[in-house]
Specification:
With 457 residues, the protein is α+β, with helices and mostly antiparallel strands. It is built from eight helices and 15 strands.
Length: 457
């Protein structure tokens, strides 16, 4: 049996040559049976595995080398928006219809340059109250007639006051005469009383003098009552005169207001340009079209050099932005190259500098905050307004702190937020030899005690 196995091995060795062919190549199938190497033959290394592994290793090595280069990375907050103007009167102006009317004629076309006060269009009022061609003159006549009527009423009220004052003066004169009559009657009574006591006149004459006094006193009381009546009549007439004047003032003011409204309404039919600029768009069609009050007729873009950019950032980023921060801007239509994004603005080409001027206190309703950016006077000027028009898309990056590349890579890999910049750039610096006041006093006391102890010794 042993001899049989030995002979088989020799045959196999002789047949396969120990798994090698004459050319020296090794084949596993020559040593191990074919059906034992099926799984091993199915597992094959891809042809691109080794080049890919080498590339990844090279890239990681380069990244580590760059990370440890003593260079800095500019942290930034990105946002996008449009080009606009900082001054409100430099932004596009909407020309609206102030009255309900019909377009009679257009005096401009889209793209036309206009000056302040130039006529844009002419409307015809279609309100039934203003259809008459001379409605301003008619309203002026109504106003004048109303004023004349009110003046006549005031004159009548003044005459009533004069009449009441005259009656009051007459009542005062009557009362004064009655008072004199009373005094005379009393003098006669006293004389009659003295004569009656002397027996020079009869008792009947004394009684007659007493009755005369009583009669004059009654007349005086009646005159004084009439004086009070006439004085109240004067007050009533004066109050009526004041009421007439106030009423006339109100009626005339209303008539003046209606006349002013009519005059202004006539002027509102002529649409004029409020600023110097260019007609950007005419919203309505040609003549004979009706428009309502408040309808948009045209849009005028003012001619101005004022320019700004408004970009929108998230609420998370808005919390770390303050005014005065530098910004890098990239305008649509103007080529720009930023090899490493906005992290290295010094090597970027085609971007423009700006300064954060305003950050809205509230969001726009969707969690975004508007940031207004004005040109940086220390940077290159922005493109000419003839090419950088309002409404152009813009991308902006608000520059924050400078950090090392390795720190920035570590921060982004871990998803940490950016460093919050110190507003104002003020930092307290403490000296190494700084000692609080209390501790300093204790130290001085201790040094003094030590000195006294040495002197005692």
């Amino acid at each position: 049996m042993a001899s049989t196995i030995t002979s088989e091995k020799k045959q196999a060795t002789t047949l396969h040559g120990n798994g090698h062919h004459g050319n020296g190549a090794f084949h596993l199938e020559n040593v191990v049976p074919y059906y034992y190497t099926t799984a091993l033959r199915l597992v094959k290394v891809p042809k691109l595995a080794q080049p890919l592994a080498r590339s990844v290793a090279v890239l990681m090595t380069v990244a580590l080398i760059i990370a440890f280069i003593p260079n800095t990375w500019q942290q930034n907050v990105g946002g996008s928006g449009i080009v606009t103007s900082f001054a409100p009167d430099a932004r596009p102006q909407t020309i609206d219809a102030q009255i309900d009317g019909r377009i009679v004629k257009w005096y401009v076309y889209e793209g036309a340059l206009v000056k302040k006060g130039d006529t844009i269009a002419q409307l015809r009022d279609i309100d039934t109250k203003y259809l008459a061609g001379n409605f301003v003159e008619l309203q002026s006549a109504v106003r004048n007639n109303t004023a004349s009527e009110q003046e006549l009423e005031i004159v009548q009220a003044q005459n009533k006051v004069l009449q009441a004052e005259q009656k009051y003066a007459a009542a005062l004169a009557t009362a004064e005469n009655a008072r004199f009559a009373v005094e005379i009657a009393k003098v006669r009574f006293y004389r009659a009383d003295s004569l009656e006591k002397q027996g020079l006149i009869a008792r009947r004459d004394l009684e007659s003098a007493r009755l005369s006094v009583q009669k004059e006193e009654a007349e005086y009381a009646k005159a004084m009552a009439q004086v009070r009546v006439e004085r109240q009549a004067v007050k009533n007439a004066e109050a009526e005169l004041g009421a007439k004047r106030r009423k006339a003032q109100a009626v005339v003011a209303k008539a003046d207001l209606e006349l002013g409204n009519v005059s202004v309404r006539k002027d509102l039919a002529t649409i004029i340009s409020p600023v110097d600029g260019q007609v950007t768009r005419i919203a309505q069609a040609g003549a004979a079209q009706n428009v309502k009050k408040g309808d948009r007729l045209a849009i005028i873009t003012p001619t101005t050099d004022d320019i700004a950019a408004e970009i929108f950032v998230s609420s998370l980023d808005a919390a770390i932005i303050d005014t005065g921060r530098p910004v890098r801007l990239q305008f649509a239509g103007f080529p720009a190259i930023q090899p490493f994004g906005a992290g290295m603005p010094n090597i970027s080409v085609g971007t423009f500098g700006g300064i954060v001027s305003v950050i809205d206190a509230v969001d726009d309703g969707s969690g975004k905050y508007r940031v207004l950016v004005r040109p940086d006077p220390n940077d290159k000027p922005w493109p000419n307004r003839a090419y950088l028009r309002q409404g152009t898309e813009v991308s902006g990056w608000v520059m924050l702190n400078e950090v090392s590349l390795i720190y920035e890579a570590w921060r982004q890999l871990n998803g940490f937020p950016q460093q919050i910049p110190v507003k104002g750039g003020m930092k307290e610096k403490k000296s190494k030899s700084f000692i609080p006041a209390k501790d300093k006093d204790d130290k001085d006391d201790k040094d003094k005690d030590d000195k006294d102890d040495k002197e005692d010794k």
